[in-house]
């Protein structure tokens, strides 16, 4: 009734052909217990320790190579800034020197022009004295004065009108800075409007206009008779002071002033009872007979 003796094992004894249960699971247990190889585990642990250590983070962030690179970059930027500042100073000094030379040349030109005007006045006076001595000379004198007045080579005086034009008070703040300044075309339109209104002689800032006069702009500077002008521009015209201002305002000259006023260009028209216009400084070209030219 009992079990066979060879099938029975004593309590606590192990069977010779059987593997223990926990030994067969040792490989899986090791895999789950240690998923990383020991070397990788130590490296990961070291990185975790360094990330938790602020001194280690600062050391990694500011490595010697990075510090040297930043210092070199700062040095280069400093040197570049100093060089740029030095070049700007040199350019400014050169510009001031050029401006001073231009002003000196302009002053010298004005002095020479005054001398020329004085000498021309002496010549005109001597001519007038000599021509008055005879009847034929008197006739020539009157004809010469008529021609000189038409050519603009003779000073004239009388009633007329003055037109003043000036740039806007702050051209750079205007919507169109280029249009907020007096242009050469503005002066030409004013001059043409005055001729059309009946002007007999015209000058701009003391420069008498003739049939050969040019009004142009170069480098944002208006030139009249090749002389640079600065605002405000005083345009004076000899003519009937009663009708000339009205005719000018109602003509194309007045229309131009109203258009310029829309860009804040300042202008003023005034009748004058007495104006004096100087003679024009010009070199006249005379025609010659072909035989004389050869």
Automatic annotation (TrEMBL):
Positions in coiled-coil regions: 95-136
A single GO cellular-component term on record: plasma membrane
Residues passing through the membrane, by range: 65-84
**Which Gene3D superfamilies does its entry note?**
Protein of unknown function DUF881 (3.30.70.1880)
Keywords in alphabetical order: Coiled coil, Membrane, Transmembrane, Transmembrane helix
Region Disordered, as annotated, extends over: 1-58
Q: Which superkingdom, per the lineage?
A: Bacteria
Ranges of Basic and acidic residues composition bias in the record: 39-56
What's this protein's family per the entry? Belongs to the UPF0749 family.
Protein name per its UniProtKB record? DUF881 domain-containing protein
User: Which organism's genome codes for this protein?
Assistant: Phytoactinopolyspora halophila
Lineage, top ranks: Bacteria, Bacillati, Actinomycetota, Actinomycetes, Jiangellales
């Amino acid at each position: 009734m009992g079990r066979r003796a060879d099938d029975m094992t004593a309590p606590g004894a192990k069977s010779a052909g059987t593997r223990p249960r926990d030994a067969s699971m040792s490989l899986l247990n090791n895999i789950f217990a240690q998923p990383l190889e020991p070397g990788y585990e130590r490296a990961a642990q070291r990185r975790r320790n360094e990330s938790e250590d602020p001194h280690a983070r600062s050391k990694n962030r500011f490595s010697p190579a990075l510090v040297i690179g930043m210092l070199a970059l700062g040095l280069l930027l400093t040197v570049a800034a100093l060089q740029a500042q030095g070049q700007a100073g040199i350019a400014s000094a050169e510009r001031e020197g050029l401006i001073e030379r231009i002003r000196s040349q302009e002053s010298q030109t004005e002095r020479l022009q005054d001398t020329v005007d004085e000498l021309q006045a002496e010549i005109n006076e001597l001519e007038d004295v000599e021509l008055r001595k005879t009847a034929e000379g008197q006739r020539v004198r009157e004809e010469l004065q008529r021609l000189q007045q038409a050519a603009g080579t003779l000073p004239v005086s009388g009633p007329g009108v003055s037109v003043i034009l000036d740039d806007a008070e702050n051209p750079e703040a205007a919507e169109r800075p280029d249009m907020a300044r007096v242009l050469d075309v503005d002066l030409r339109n004013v001059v043409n409007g005055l001729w059309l209104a009946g002007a007999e002689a015209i000058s701009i800032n003391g420069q008498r206009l003739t049939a050969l006069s040019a009004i142009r702009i170069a480098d944002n500077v208006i030139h009249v008779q090749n002389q640079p002008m600065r605002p405000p521009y005083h345009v004076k015209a000899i003519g009937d002071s009663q009708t000339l201002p009205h005719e000018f305002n109602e003509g194309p000259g007045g229309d131009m002033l109203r258009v310029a006023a829309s860009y804040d260009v300042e202008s003023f028209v005034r009748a004058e009872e007495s104006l004096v216009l100087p003679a024009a400084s010009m070199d006249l070209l005379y025609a010659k007979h072909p035989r004389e030219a050869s």
